[in-house]
Amino acid sequence: MRVDLFDFELPDTSIALRPVEPRDAARMLVVQPEGLEDRIVRDLPDLLQPGDVLVLNDTKVIPSRLYGLRVREETAARVEIMLHKREGADRWRAFARPAKKLNVGDRIRFGEDSESTACELVRLDAEVEEKGEGGDVGLRFSFAGAFLDEAIARLGELPLPPYIAGKRPTDDKDRADYQTVYAKDEGAVAAPTAGLHFTDDLFRRIDERGISRQFVTLHVGAGTFLPVKADDTAEHRMHAEWGSVSEETARALNEARARGGRIVAVGTTSLRLLESAAKEDGTIAPFSGDTAIFITPGYRFKAVDVLMTNFHLPRSTLFMLVSAFAGLECMKAAYTHAIETGYRFYSYGDASLLFRR
């Protein structure tokens, strides 16, 4: 499909730079085949049915933006590294900026720059092992496993999306705001933002309504921020992300569906993982590995009945996904309504609740 079919005008004032407080006070646009309805996230239990199952992504965001110094013989240059996918105990794929300053074999030093420092743990080195397209590089670090995790946590910065980070600096408040209250499994470099709306009180009311919860893990990569530069969707390459659906979760979801319950994916990350794990007959199998599933209109959904998600960028793979789920013309009308009535867009913005077409 032509990518320009998924374009729309979004005023700069529609982009949320901070979340609302409390989290579940955000607005929520309900999108059903019969029309649109303005609600708030706190209304979610009333919009679902007893027996439905919420599926939430419990990934936890790590401080994956690193600033370093490329060291090459007698010359040095500053570079920014955005980690996006772990490939081993000491290896990460990353986006480098400016990538033209890096060659295979170069060394990048993060943290303390002194060669004579008494404590090796105050700095972190990486070697460029591979250089791909669009600033993508493969890095091998001087630490591995938990030692590397600790170094990244100490030296890294929370990776707010560029449409927020370009307008204000990251601060201590973001460290809490940019994590879900149920974040558990470290490895994401972007938050599963639909989950940011949930509170302990909202979960209590969901439980009382007879709606159950299951958790999956998809480590969201920085590729989620990348625009689609191709003119046709067939020419776009998705970056792979690692995900896991446990045997216990798969069984619980299949049993709920057999009883007539609906699968409600909280976020496009949960949906993409469930669809990757689903068989042709709609049953969900245990899953562990990479997924690069790219969902556009025409895709036949097998696992997910309802999707809760935020509002997405024009021409993005995520707007393509929601258009596949609810219909392109329906989503264009929904986004026009959202813009005209002051909904807040993107990671810290409001939510939508989509019922599958």
Structural category? alpha/beta
> Whole-Å distance between the termini?
19 Å
Radius of gyration: 21 Å
Largest sheet: 9 strands, mixed
Question: What is the residue-mean pLDDT, rounded to a whole number?
Answer: 93
What is the count of helical runs?
9
Strand order of the largest sheet: 2-1-17-16-14-3-12-13-15
Tell me how many strands there are: 17
Task: Explain the layout of strands and helices.
Blueprint: E1 27-32, E2 35-40, H1 44-47, E3 53-57, E4 59-61, E5 65-72, E6 75-88, E7 91-97, E8 107-111, E9 123-131, E10 136-141, H2 145-155, H3 162-165, H4 172-177, E11 185-188, H5 200-208, E12 212-218, E13 241-245, H6 247-258, E14 263-266, H7 268-277, E15 287-291, E16 306-310, H8 317-326, H9 328-340, E17 351-355
Parallel strand pairs: 1-17, 3-12, 3-14, 4-11, 14-16
Antiparallel strand pairs: 1-2, 5-6, 5-8, 6-7, 7-10, 8-9, 9-10, 12-13, 13-15, 16-17
Describe what this molecule looks like in 3D.
- By secondary structure, the protein is an alpha/beta fold.
- It is about 20% helix and about 30% strand.
- The protein is built from nine helices and 17 strands.
- It has a nine-stranded mixed β-sheet.
- It is globular and about 65 Å long.
- The relative contact order is 0.21.
- Residues about 115-120 have low confidence and may be disordered.
